[in-house]
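Our consortium's second objective concerns turning raw sequence data into structural hypotheses that experimental partners can test. To show how far this objective has progressed, the report includes one record in full. It was chosen at random from the queue rather than selected for favorable results. The single chain below, 492 residues long, was entered without modification.
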Amino acid sequence: MLSNSKKVLIIGSGIGGLSTGIILAKLGYDVRILEKNRRAGGLLRSYTRDGFECETGVHYLGSLAKGQILDTFFTYLGVKEGIPVSRMGTNGVIDRYLFNATESNPLKFDLPEGFDAFEANLHEGFPRDTKCIQSVVAHIRDTSKQLHNLDLLFGTDNDFSLLDQAEPYGEILDSLGCSPGLRSVLAMASSWIGVAVGDCPAYYHNMALASYLSSSWRLDISGAAMADVFAKRFQNLGGTIQTGSEIDKIIVQNRIVEGVELISGERVDADIVIGAIHPQMVLKMLPDGAVKPSYRHRIQKLQNTHSIFSVHASVDATVHPEKPYNIYNVDTDPAGNITDLKFYQIRKSGRQEKSLLSILTSGHDEKWTPWKESKSGRRGNEYNSLKRDCAEQLLEEAAGVLGNFSNLKLLDVATPLTLRDWMNSPDGSTYGVLRSTGQTLATALLNRTAVKGLYLAGQNVLAPGVIGTIMGSFSTVKLILGPENFIKNVSL
């Protein structure tokens, strides 16, 4: 118990805000989470349409086997027992990639569990790329060891240690003479975090791929139920969640944080304020002069990942039973770079006779520009018509992959603007700040706000995804405590 006296306010109740709150509450801090929506959970929270749970942010998890990194995190946070999961890959397939540019790609590639199986599948699919495959798999294995050993949290290196591994992954593949087909397969891991392979730092690519090769899992509960597990754990530790509380501004005097003011006019004082939302949204809450002009400029200029467009529909379960793996329909250019992709998942639903079909694809933000200044529910018939047209096009394309759908019923369609208004993320950016090689230094400095008591948390601190977001939460707590106190008081 480090500090029963210090009051902490966390802005945002996604998995970043909740995990940061749990860690600090375990350490004895008085923590309150402020959430603008009616329920806690952020993108973690699924939503119900016609009795079906539509997932938004968690479609599968990596590295949750005993002793692996997410298992370690969940155990420390005290949420593991409340989150039942099923292991993927028992049939040899976690993800199935279906490529459309067959002149440079195989028709399909199956991503299995395990590094040996992955290497074997690569050799079988690309027998002429032997040396390249051996090299890339060796580096993925090394990254896996660093990941599960928690080197980023407990290593002696500073925030800039990742700069040594920031070489663009695409350039590494070029130097190894990688074929276009192999490049397309390996580029998939970069697309998971919203970065093109030619601009993705090697470490982030390898970390994403290593986490799923180590083990992959599906939730046996909804994302909303998982969010409730985190929220209940936080509250059981003495934390408070205040929903329906939108922040107007963060109060700063002489570059020392004093608390926040809600749009209702209520002032909430605190010794520490943590923005577990996008840093550009935190910046908008700060008064002029609160941070150095150089920091404000750096945050304002950050590029963000694109958003997604999602479709959820119910289908006949007897014709379309749950598929034990995910399917990606992938478009590539002749060089093997991914130009677009669609993610398909068919899961059991709460109704025995129905399965839930989920489709995710690029947001194509430019389509929604005419409604950029509008709010959800007030965008008119033209917007709704475009949404439905895009959804029907995706469903037609999905039928070409999965077969004609029986008794299909469209449940929900979400655009980048839907996500923007829900998550308070610029333009609905799903993965937050773009983790590109050109922004490695800028993103390494995000938590150097120069405002005493003001910190950031969540996926923008370290890396996107559940693992990256929770690791970012621990990283923020390490910054608050200092390295020595962190190592002394946080035992993972």
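The partners drew two points from this record. The mean pLDDT is 92. The longest helix spans residues 380-402. Both points have been shared with the crystallography group to help prioritize constructs.
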